[in-house]
Amino acid sequence: MRIALGQINTTVGDLAGNVDRMVEAARQAAGRGADLIAFPELSVTGYPPRDLLEKPSFLDRTGEQMARLASETASLPLSLICGYAGKAAGETGKRATNSAAVLREGKVVFRQNKMLLPTYDVFDEARYFLPGQSEQLVRLEGTQVALTVCEDAWNDKQFWERRLYQRDPVEEMIQAGGQILISINASPYHMGKRALRREIFSAAAQRHGVPVVYVNQVGGQDSLVFDGSSFVMDGAGKLAASAASFQEDLVVFDSETGEGDSRQNFPDECEAAYEALALGTRDYIRKCGFRRVLIGLSGGIDSSLTAAIAVDAVGRGNVVGVGMPGPFSSDHSVADARALAANLGIRFEMVSISGVYQEFLRALDPLFAGAPRDVTEENLQARLRGVTLMALSNKWSALVLTTGNKSELAVGYCTLYGDMCGGLAVISDVPKTLVYQLARVANRRHANAIPESVFQKPPSAELRPDQKDSDSLPEYDVLDRILRAYIEEYQPPHQIAATLGLPLDLVREVAAKVDRNEYKRQQAAPGLKVTSKAFGIGRRFPIAQKYTE
Question: CA-to-CA distance for 29 and 80, rounded, in angstroms?
Answer without folding.
Answer: 10
